[in-house]
């Protein structure tokens, strides 16, 4: 009987892992959480009723490689101290599938002392590329400053673009953890980003990494690059990188790109996002002009988002007009609802309540979210009625596109003082 209870407790502990991990890691995606859930169900189905049972499956070479790889993932999030050596040993497994999973798992496990076996794999050009990539990215999760010199060396000399890209991604991951900042990375990554002979994927990942550094040294070179580079994906990444700088110098170049109707749509959207992060009130009139007059609905929708992010009170009435205009594109109206909730001006309460009855599913979804952000208790009865009647799931959103759940989450946010 005791064994049954212990097994049930262990299963409950495992099934709680994705939820607790998502709470700790704001950068972690729902896709990764779903992968962890799938791995947990697989190992439980295989009979792993304890930590020791998981280790036994990992060490059993007679088991299917994919199952052993899933065990690595589960152990990395379980973080039981006694399982660390088993994960490190799995780096030497015969199966490439298991070794790759072990690289990621050692990184997620978080024991900074295990950087060295990962670096040994990363530097060994005789190893398969996928394994070296996994080792580098695992090192990024460890966020150990001892990785800086050897990984920057790989960035400089390794002939494989996939490896240089993995190095950039490792530093991005380390920086996103908020435990890692190192000024030594700025110049090498700026050199990669501005080198037009470099592989585009390496340049793009270098730009994302630079955006996380928030280092002012990147501003002038990236503004020049934004105005002259012929690769639209690179320009898009530049917009994102500049958004992390929080500096008045970036405003006009980004606004110029956003207003350029000949520019690629996603580049313009990236610049709008960066302007929202900058939170410059002086550009509100030009943003309102774009909201009213830009011919591209996706730009009008993105500009609505931007006005919400900069909390523009002057935008409340134009956004309400967009929300209530049934001739406007659905995505523009939906984003207007979201922006109004973000701004939180009570003038928009009634229009948002009315939008809960809108014929467009996307508008109702974002109206519910907007009311949650606004935080007014007056919205709760309306949201409760919406939750009772809604059965719609937004196509392509999976379980995150439930209008019923959007209403319930908004109620929870209001009741808990969020928004």
Order of helices and strands: HHHHHHHHHHHHHHHHHHHHHHHH
Shape: flat
Task: Provide the gyration radius in Å.
Answer: 24 Å
- Termini separation comes to 46 Å
Relative strand content: under 5%
How would you classify the helix and strand content by structural class? mainly alpha
* Average pLDDT: 91
Total number of helices:
24
* Poorly predicted sequence stretches spanning 5 or more consecutive residues: 1-5
State the helical fraction. Answer: 55-70%
Biggest sheet layout: none
Beta-strand segment tally: 0
Give structural notes.
- The protein is 69% helix and 0% strand.
- The chain has helices spanning 2-24, 30-45, 51-59, 65-78, 84-90, 96-109, 115-123, 129-142, 148-157, 161-176, 186-194, 200-213, 219-228, 232-243, 251-259, 265-278, 284-293, 297-309, 316-324, 330-343, 349-355, 361-374, 380-389, 403-415.
- The longest helix is centred in the first third of the chain and has 23 residues, at 2-24.
- Mean pLDDT is 91; it is low at 1-5.
Helices, strands, pairings?
Blueprint: H1 2-24, H2 30-45, H3 51-59, H4 65-78, H5 84-90, H6 96-109, H7 115-123, H8 129-142, H9 148-157, H10 161-176, H11 186-194, H12 200-213, H13 219-228, H14 232-243, H15 251-259, H16 265-278, H17 284-293, H18 297-309, H19 316-324, H20 330-343, H21 349-355, H22 361-374, H23 380-389, H24 403-415
Helix pairs in contact: 1-2, 2-4, 3-4, 4-6, 5-6, 6-8, 7-8, 8-10, 9-10, 10-12, 11-12, 12-14, 13-14, 14-16, 15-16, 16-18, 17-18, 18-20, 19-20, 20-22, 21-22, 22-24, 23-24
């Amino acid at each position: 009987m005791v064994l049954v209870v212990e097994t049930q407790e262990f299963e409950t502990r495992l099934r709680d892992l994705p939820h607790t991990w998502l709470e700790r890691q704001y950068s972690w995606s729902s896709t990764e959480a779903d992968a962890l859930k799938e791995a947990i169900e697989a190992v439980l189905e295989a009979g792993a009723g304890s930590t020791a049972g998981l280790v036994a499956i990992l060490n059993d070479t007679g088991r299917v490689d994919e199952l052993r790889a899933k065990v690595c993932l589960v152990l990395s999030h379980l973080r039981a101290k006694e399982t660390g050596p088993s994960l490190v040993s799995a780096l030497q497994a015969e199966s490439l599938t298991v070794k790759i999973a072990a690289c990621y798992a050692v990184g997620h496990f978080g024991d900074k002392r295990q950087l060295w076996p990962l670096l040994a794999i990363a530097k060994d050009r005789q190893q398969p590329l996928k394994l070296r990539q996994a080792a580098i990215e695992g090192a990024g999760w460890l966020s150990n400053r001892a990785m800086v010199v050897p990984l920057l060396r790989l960035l400089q000399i390794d002939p494989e673009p996939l490896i240089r890209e993995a190095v950039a991604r490792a530093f991005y991951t380390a920086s996103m953890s908020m435990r890692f900042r190192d000024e030594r990375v700025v110049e090498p990554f700026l050199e990669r980003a501005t080198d037009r002979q470099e592989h585009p994927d390496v340049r793009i990942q270098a730009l994302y990494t630079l955006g996380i550094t928030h280092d002012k040294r990147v501003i002038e070179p990236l503004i020049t690059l934004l105005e002259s580079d012929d690769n639209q994906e690179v320009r898009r990444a530049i917009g994102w990188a500049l958004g992390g700088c929080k500096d008045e110098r970036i405003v006009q170049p980004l606004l110029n790109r956003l207003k350029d109707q000949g520019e690629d749509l996603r580049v313009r959207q990236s610049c709008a996002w960066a302007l929202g992060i900058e939170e410059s009130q002086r550009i509100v009139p030009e943003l309102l002009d774009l909201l009213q007059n830009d011919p591209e609905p996706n730009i009008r929708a993105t500009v609505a988002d931007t006005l919400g992010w900069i909390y523009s009170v002057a935008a409340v009435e134009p956004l309400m007009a967009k929300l209530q205009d049934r001739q406007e594109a659905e995505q523009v109206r939906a984003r207007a609802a979201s922006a109004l909730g973000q701004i939180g001006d009570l003038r928009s309460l009634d229009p948002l309540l009315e939008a809960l009855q809108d014929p467009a599913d996307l508008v109702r979804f974002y109206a519910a979210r907007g009311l949650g952000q606004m935080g007014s208790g007056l919205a709760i009865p309306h949201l409760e009625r919406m939750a009772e009647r809604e059965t719609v799931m937004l196509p392509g959103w999976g379980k995150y596109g439930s209008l019923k759940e959007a209403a319930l989450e908004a109620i929870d946010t209001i009741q808990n003082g969020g928004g």
